[in-house]
């Protein structure tokens, strides 16, 4: 069970609302923090005495607010722990991201719009890229075809890509994999012993956690703030949990869409080093900026102990099935061994395609970037028209909106819909429950699909939001 300090709680609460009584404001603010996953289920709240000192409120005010939390089901008393936050009725059972072993997306023949997946279609010109790569293939066909760490042109292109971004990198630090999840799994095998802890922000990308849990890792959660990574809470959680590693998404966080600035990256890296934890930095969405190109360095520029995960799936095309690791030099051998324990290398032809794309400086195509930006703005406008009580963010990058719902009914909404497939908020919770006030809405699909999906979502919401 975690515990939140009185000083951290004071920062999260902000200034009191003078339009209501102090106890009512405190009760409503605490209830919102718990319901929205900012204070996790099972977290011990500060003692009344500590809360009084930190918040500058009377003992009567704090006692009454805590009592109302307990009466409304958002807290309980526990001997030795004081007041403990909880979700009314217990945690909502959540599932992993809907990628079942039996298949992905709608059943064959289904006309449902799949909004469980956030990934763009292949850009124009992909066929020509494969045709060009075929001319380079014969020199590789003369050998057996095993390149477990990747072909040299791709490793060199990726090394130059990081160097251009301000992170000097040699080809020997690049390890090519069959996708971001394979990279995360290899990183977990290299730096984690079975049963060791991994810290992750909640919400987060669920399949990365599954890849680490499959290796026997224990997960612990720290809430992400509405404006992005809460570095005070991250520092406190690292000190308390003492994990061996932490999964970090500083670049257009999936699903929240936030981007961490250089000062935040530097502090996060320093906190990881101080705790002796290896940062597994997921840069899958780093090239998905939609407005202005971010002026930030890769987070690994701030510490020699960070492992970077990259992927072509979002920036180029998921059909390439290629990812990579940018390894610190002292971990390169361990990561290479871990990667080779999984398979003997990615397909050569696809590696040639990606090497040519990256060498030419191509990431997300401008046509795709423009379509994503237009879809994002259109979807925000439509939600304001047909679902005015929903509060979508406006991410500067990424592939989806993270919408705050007026009622905690995300799972009920997903169950009600038949013509649209949705992943409820609990899908993205580290502990598999909570976040029922949130809904991820990808905007990478064709506009026609989105135009069909939103009215169906609005109609279903009317039925469940009661």
Automatic annotation (TrEMBL):
**Domain annotation HTH gntR-type: ranges:** 20-88
Q: Which PROSITE patterns does UniProt cross-reference here?
A: HTH_GNTR
InterPro entries the UniProt entry points to: Aminotransferase_I/II_large (IPR004839), HTH_trans_reg/aminotransferase (IPR051446), PyrdxlP-dep_Trfase (IPR015424), PyrdxlP-dep_Trfase_major (IPR015421), Tscrpt_reg_HTH_GntR (IPR000524), WH-like_DNA-bd_sf (IPR036388), WH_DNA-bd_sf (IPR036390)
Which keywords belong to this entry? Aminotransferase, DNA-binding, Pyridoxal phosphate, Transcription, Transcription regulation, Transferase
What SUPFAM superfamilies does the database record attribute to this sequence?
PLP-dependent transferases, Winged helix' DNA-binding domain
Signal sequence bounds? none
MF terms per GO, please? DNA binding; DNA-binding transcription factor activity; pyridoxal phosphate binding; transaminase activity
> What superkingdom heads the lineage?
Bacteria
Alphabetized PANTHER family for the sequence? HTH-TYPE TRANSCRIPTIONAL REGULATORY PROTEIN GABR (PTHR46577)
Which family does the record assign? Answer: In the C-terminal section; belongs to the class-I pyridoxal-phosphate-dependent aminotransferase family.
> What is the name of the protein in this document?
PLP-dependent aminotransferase family protein
Q: Which organism is it from?
A: Glutamicibacter soli
